[in-house]
Amino acid sequence: MFQRNLHRHDDVKLVMSALRSDPQCLPILIEWGASLRRDVASALREVIATGAWQSETRVRSAAAHWHEEPRFDVFLEHGLEKRRNRGPKYEHLDAALLTFPETRAALYRVSAAECPQHCRTRTGTFAEDRHVDDYRQALFGWYAAIQHAHACVVRAARCFADARLPDPRQHETFTDWMTGTRRRHSDSAVQQSETAAQRALREIILMMHAWSPHTFEALDVAFRKAEGEETSHAWGRGFEPAGRNEAQAAAEALASVLSPQERRQVREVIEGIESHEDEDRDMDLAADSTLACTSDRHRSYGADTAEREDCAMARGRVYEEASQPWCEGIDRKADAARLARFLLGPSSDRTQAALATARAGVARESTEEASQIWHDNAEPLREAREAAGIHLDEAASHLGIKPATLQRFEQATGKLPGRPVSLGYLQLLTLSCIQTGRTAPACIPQAISQPVTSLPNTLS
Question: What is the band of 5 on the pLDDT scale with cuts at 50, 70, 90?
Fold first, then answer.
């Protein structure tokens, strides 16, 4: 795993080792970290939206071994390490997603339901393997970047202090120097530089926090000391000891170069980061069925607002089903998985799930009649299929037969079609008529059409 996804990881290592003591190492790390963090969040959204994680070898083999549905936590844990110095841990991923509520909501939904959370699109629209590779590489790149955060802050603070020694009256602040901005007198220029400073501070503090959970406490103690208070570290008992010295060194370096106003900015940034750690708010967002589909690919392929809202409603229903209180004899995860296949998959997957569900609701005697009904009403049924906009090849693929075979059955030539194929054809026509707002052919008995008409209307 580590060797397969070292591309961006090695890029970060190479550049940071080349810069080493260069004063520009911090601005470069900030830009790189922000880019990698965005890549992690967006790629993970696409992995969930396309269901690409189900194609992973380990996920498939685990599902086959235990005779169960593919589980998302198998995919997620495969890319995460238990040990801090061997690869990205869950804490590193969690920190990368702190300011991306849409990705956190998607993660909560798919983890709760342990089932696919596809976009409602046509099959074959996405290059699924690419999303998985993008996610893995961005995650390992982020892991490489956060290792340099504390050391870069220390070096940058020293460089800034040394640069100010010849002229201590210099008015440039550390955050301005860090972002490469120069204050101008116009209000808009000042506001832009302050926004850039806030963004840069947020990114570097997030990177420090991702690598060491002691960062916030170390900053608080260092700032209080700089303001003349008597205080010391408590070092939270539940935290791992790794990273304490790094956090303390970086905090003391920052305290020595930041002005009181800048220290106030840092505290505001930390408050904003901590506000995103509210798990209840993430769960509320995951339960919100009005959260539109967050897939970038979905939006880029011209999906209209109604389609995105349908996708959001379907995801909300799956999460709601999976989040119901436990009841003996009811497998909520399995029910959510079935509902996800029925509502969220690509168009052909939803159709197949609907036909399988409807087929199970037809009595055996009605199934035996389906072949003769199709043969006797071949012409009006073919006209209904064409009016509903189903191509011959598409219908054949849903029924699992060749287009030439379907064409022969629609011409009522040769032997009667098989009972499963006949039943599937009649129910496919009923489903297509519902989706296009048409009346199903009268020759289809209610015993066959009723299991289709009772399906949720969010299928379309």
Answer: low
